[in-house]
Amino acid sequence: MHVKKTKKIVVLATGGTIAGWANDAEQPQHYQAGQVSVDDLVAGMDLKGYDVVTEQVVQVDSKDMTFAIWQSLLRRLTHWLSLADVQGVVITHGTDTVEETAYLLSAVSPMAKPIALTCAMLPANAPDADGPGNLRDALAWVASDAACGVSLVCAGQVHRGHAVQKTNSQWRNPFTSHVLPESGTSLQTPSLAQLLDATEWPRVLLIYSHSGADGRDVRALMAQDPPAGFVVAGTGNGTVHQALESALMEARGQGAFVLRASRCAWGGVQTRKGDVFPHAGNLTPVQARIALILHMLSLQQT
Ligand code: SIN
């Protein structure tokens, strides 16, 4: 006799618009993120076929994401994914920084089991709220045989966690994924244990190269409160204004790590003769910042 066992899927909630609430549901654009509990989010859903366990990890607007929250999330992921009867995890998250969390989890993913992040552009009580559909899609994806690694499920699409970026601030489907063969300088990743033990994460700042850049901010920082590193979002193929480049070379001479990415949404950075700074290939500036933080963490602790 074939007995079909339903495997558990754990929903870890972190807040965001998917858990947002508008005082006036007719004006859903005026809402607060991170208001509705995960139990209330799933209460109205048809979960037939799924054995769902919920846990509220935090309740934040994802613009306020912190390293400490990432550590809590990783601890809970490690716990749940280590249980034999858990098939995978769905994480509800705000859209604004979900690409950073997705990239981090992809880099240090605690287990081979699938992890799907999901989110929404409309609060939970908007008449046409997109959260329930996205959550249902994320559960279906994690339950499927095709699911593996870290992904982001939104608006009927599945994006790979290390390649997704929010490229639209309004649309129901605000994400695109970049696909490029080019990889940048090789950076190390700390072990999960190293990451969880870290009490302070290296301070890596993100700066833009732009018309009229003069490097004064970099020099002032290095004089007063030097960061461990800079990711410079360069123009085009990662080029950097000569005045900013001079300041960053000085900063590097003083011990700061400098990594280049591109301001362009697509295309990344390709190696060119005479490059002054290493580059992050197809990583977006925010992903490059996380990659550099992880690299520096791994160096600190070896
Ligand atoms: C957030 O990122 O928490 C708020 C915005 C959103 O989820 O779309």
Label the CATH architecture of the largest domain. 3-Layer(aba) Sandwich
- Class inferred from helices and paired strands: alpha/beta
The oligomeric state is: single chain
Number of helices: 8
N-to-C terminal Cα separation, in Å? Answer: 53 Å
The CATH homologous superfamily of the largest domain: L-asparaginase, N-terminal domain
Count of discrete domains: 2
Query: Low-confidence parts lasting 5 or more residues at pLDDT below 50?
Result: none
What is the helical fraction, as a range of percent?
25-40%
Placed side by side, the strands forming the largest sheet appear as: 4-1-5-6-7-8
Average pLDDT: 94
* Largest sheet geometry: 6 strands, mixed
Detailed description of the structure:
The protein contains 8 helices and 13 strands. The radius of gyration is 21 Å and the shape is globular. It has 2 domains: 8-177, Rossmann fold (3-Layer(aba) Sandwich), CATH 3.40.50.1170; 192-300, Rossmann fold (3-Layer(aba) Sandwich). It is 29% helix and 22% strand. A 6-stranded mixed β-sheet has the order 4-1-5-6-7-8, with helices on both faces. The structure holds succinic acid. The site of succinic acid has 12 residues, from loops. Succinic acid (SIN) binds at residues 15-17, 33, 61-63, 94-96, 119, 121.
List the SSEs and their pairings:
Layout: E1 8-15, E2 21-22, E3 31-32, H1 38-43, E4 51-60, H2 67-81, E5 86-92, H3 98-108, E6 115-118, H4 131-143, E7 150-154, E8 157-160, E9 164-166, E10 175-177, H5 192-197, E11 204-208, H6 216-224, E12 229-234, H7 242-253, E13 257-262, H8 285-300
Parallel strand pairs: 1-4, 1-5, 5-6, 6-7, 11-12, 12-13
Antiparallel strand pairs: 2-3, 7-8, 9-10
The structure holds succinic acid (SIN).
